[in-house]
Amino acid sequence: MAQPFRLSRGGRIDRARPVRFTFNGRKVAGFHGDSVASALLANGIHLVGRSFKYHRPRGILSHGSDESSALLSVDRGPGRIDPNNRASVVEARDGLTTRSQNHWPSLEHDLGAVNDLLSPVFVAGFYYKTFMWPKQFWDKVYEPVIRAAAGLGKAPTAPDPDRYANRHAHCDVLVIGAGPAGLAASLAAARTGKRVILADEGPEPGGALLHDVDAEIDGRPASEWLEAALAELDSRENVILLSRTTAFGYYNHNHVALAERVTDHLPNPGTAPRERLWQVRAGEVVLATGAHERPLVFADNDRPGILLAESVRVFLNRYGVAPGRRLVVATSGASAYATALDAQAAGLAVTLVDLRAEEECGPELASLRAAGIAVLTGHTVIGAKGGKRVTGLVVAPADRAGRCGAHRLLPCDCVGMSGGWTPAVHLFSQSRGKLSFDAAIDAFVPGTSVQAERSAGAANGVYDLAECLAQGDAAGAAAAGSEERRRFAASPTLTGFRPVRAMPTDADPAKVRAFVDFQNDVTAKDIGLAVREGFRSIEHVKRYTTTGMATDQGKTSNMNALGIVAGKLDTTLPSVGTTTFRPPYTPVTFGTLVGPARHALFDPIRTTPIHDWAEARGATFENVALWRRAWYFPKPGEDRHRAVARECRAVREGVGIFDASTLGKIEVVGPDAAEFMNRLYVNPWLKLEVGRCRYGLMLKEDGYILDDGVVARVAPDCFHVTTTTGGAARVLAHMEDYLQTEWPDLEVFLTSTTEQWAVIALQGPKARAVIAPLVEGIDLSPEAFPHMAMRSGTICGVPTRLFRVSFTGELGFEINVPSDHALAVWEAVHAAGEAHGITPYGTETMHVLRAEKGYIIVGQETDGTVTPDDVGLSGMIAKAKKDFVGKRSLARPDVVASGRKQLVGLVTDDPALVLDEGAQLVADPGQPIPMRMLGHVTSSYASPSCGRSIALALVAGGRARLGGHLHATTPEGFARVTVVDPVFLDPTGERIHA
């Protein structure tokens, strides 16, 4: 298959390995090593997309990750369609299907191009002004049209069949970027023996050395130096080389996130993951991320065929592709001269246009003229000609004041433009480092580092090859703790440019369409309009115009935009500042971020040792935190309400068995364990006897309830702490935080034992009779084993910590046994209880039983703003304690103020009406809207024991309203309720002490 723009020789592609893929149904030929962009250019395809807002024809702008125009939908097979892939990054391979985006009905004939004709209306911020009238149009006209037009590409709808991996890694030195500086840094660090990770976003390490074919390092071709450097790094066991790996986020404590593209370039990836997320913790980081070339801003600078000058050079030398036959290089600096020389060597007809005056140019000017290349110094670009492909460039002489002379048309089919260079400081800024402005290179460069980080090479504003190598070497050695430094001899690099924000023109500024942000169709006049309308902050200008907000995050547009704003405000560029560099540096797939955490692993379900037993007996389950818990056990023909009512009666009248294994359990051990508990909980712990239990209430620093649970003192230096099911991890983290940061002097050790202990709750008047034959070594009599006691012994021959506690208000025991023996003990207890009518019950019954007793559940009766006094637990607070977490906050004026919401009970006039949980409460349902809400229902159930519905609620000044009436919202309106004490059953507690 012919590739008319493929050079006959050169490039790093493998011409012996042809590849075939399609673009919009057209077959495209390339070679192994091609990017999709280079293969398209080799086949003479320049029109690859349409712009977002105006649907203007767009081509390939860049060769790298800063590509903003050539965004393609890539189909790698069934279920593997991704939108918005940069053609310059996607590697060409057999079987790939690519399509252009943002057009209809076709790329060549796009009806959306009518927007280009309406561009005088669609100026910056037009959407803020246009869609406000008439009001009724919003739902029916404006919003549907805007939503239909929004977005680039189409999100896939099929499930992603690929696998994604996640790896955590530690290293002494992480080097990001494998150009000259990054390679030198890696070599210097690796030679010290330190662990080194070198990551580069390209498929092949080397950076600019891959296309700088004439460069020499230390007296030999740069390609040979590169090969030797990679061979040395690859041979070292202390070095990990990661190609196709983008560092997209730099977080605290030198935590850097990397996205590795593992198999996208492979025709048959097998079972390997598509991508891998690396989470690297590095001792030191070296940023060698290079620099981005700036486009020139002139009329119609977005025509297909207009590329960045260095990208033209890359396509020529690395891929063996001529982006055109007649090239015009437009520049304001020296680096583009190398492109002109290489293009002429490849057989292209070349003309160079330089905004700089003759006397501003360096030796590069003489070298071009000596090669026979026409150079027009002191010339500006007025505009580009052409539609779906550039056909010419209109130029004119221009003086320093911007006055233009006679126009001249330079016919061409390709333009390489260069407005200078911008260091890639994104990761440095993400690390919270402070930028400084270097006027000599007209760019922001890394200034003060906040983390253990060093920048080197072009990322640090150094463009000369020898200096890049030396700075990289110094950074790598210093990061590894070495004082050794070396110098490099390298061929000189063409550097220096005249900063230009927009090319001088004699055209009417109101009619010039000179693009700054290619992806979001932001022009220089849009930015000027934002300034005229009063925007001064660059962040506001960014949002008003959307410049820098596209998927490329302004890599090619930011400096031009900043400069235009500075010019319009007649101020300096440093005073304008920069926009915020946020991760990710380049787009990252959702699959990479999610990794293996999907399907069953997205929200892992934990089950108890009793789960299968409950499932076999027809239990209905509910999710509680990460646990799968038995909700209720319906018998044939029973719905939830009848099943729960039966279970409630069984517990109150006989005996019920409940799986409480999901309770969080933490072992607090050590000589200072009691002191630790005393500081952490509101109630006293120093004098709690061994073998006794206490209900513990834990607060946050703000004085609000964090968690609760029963705590048993197992030994003088050991506490068995229980937490709520959903609060286990939170409480353990809370404890560790205080132990490690506030009280490091305490000798205490914390161990999560949630999975080690299974808990079987036996509740009801017959509970003692059921377990009596099974327990050994424990006196179960009420006198020897009172309520809120704990004893160690055996049950069914299995070691147990037996708690005499109850969350139902009945005689109760919680049997803690090792999880491996839990099912056997459960079955034995259940078998022993059959003679007493034992009934398994679930969480819904547990909720009803505890509500009848007025027991709170953290997270249901509390919401993060509830204090102990609000729920009637102020008596638990140890007044004599010097301090505990949250104590000072309990004295805050808003916490002790009258009128706070307090826990009360509610009964409806209609005993059959069960209120909705969350129902709002008002004093007068006839009051005007908005009504004054006095509180809300926190729990509501039908109570078999009470013979009616009951509810708990938080009500403003609730305890003062006992006996009074309020009105609760219902789906039909309001229902009158009476405020009562929150304890509905056995207020004296006789049953629990049986």
Which SSEs are present, and which pair or pack?
Layout: E1 14-23, E2 26-32, H1 36-42, E3 49-50, E4 57-58, E5 71-75, E6 81-86, E7 97-99, H2 114-117, H3 126-130, H4 137-149, E8 164-176, H5 180-190, E9 196-199, E10 216-217, E11 220-221, H6 222-235, E12 239-242, E13 245-251, E14 255-261, E15 275-287, E16 291-293, E17 306-308, H7 309-317, E18 326-331, H8 336-345, E19 349-354, H9 363-370, E20 374-377, E21 379-386, E22 390-397, E23 408-411, E24 414-418, E25 421-423, H10 426-430, E26 434-438, E27 443-448, E28 453-455, H11 465-479, E29 515-517, E30 522-523, H12 524-532, H13 538-545, H14 558-569, H15 573-576, H16 590-594, H17 611-616, E31 620-624, E32 627-632, H18 640-653, E33 656-659, E34 664-669, H19 673-680, E35 693-699, E36 705-715, E37 718-723, H20 728-742, E38 749-752, E39 757-763, H21 767-771, E40 775-776, E41 789-795, E42 798-804, E43 812-818, H22 822-833, E44 839-840, H23 843-852, H24 893-896, E45 901-908, E46 920-922, E47 935-943, E48 948-956, E49 965-970, E50 973-980
Parallel strand pairs: 1-7, 8-9, 8-15, 9-12, 15-28, 17-24, 18-19, 18-24, 19-20, 33-44
Antiparallel strand pairs: 1-2, 3-4, 5-6, 5-7, 10-11, 13-14, 14-15, 16-25, 21-22, 22-23, 26-27, 29-30, 31-32, 33-39, 34-37, 34-38, 35-36, 36-37, 39-43, 40-41, 41-42, 42-43, 45-48, 45-50, 46-47, 46-49, 47-48, 49-50
Primary descriptors:
seven-stranded mixed beta sheet; 994 residues; 50 strands; alpha+beta; 21% helix
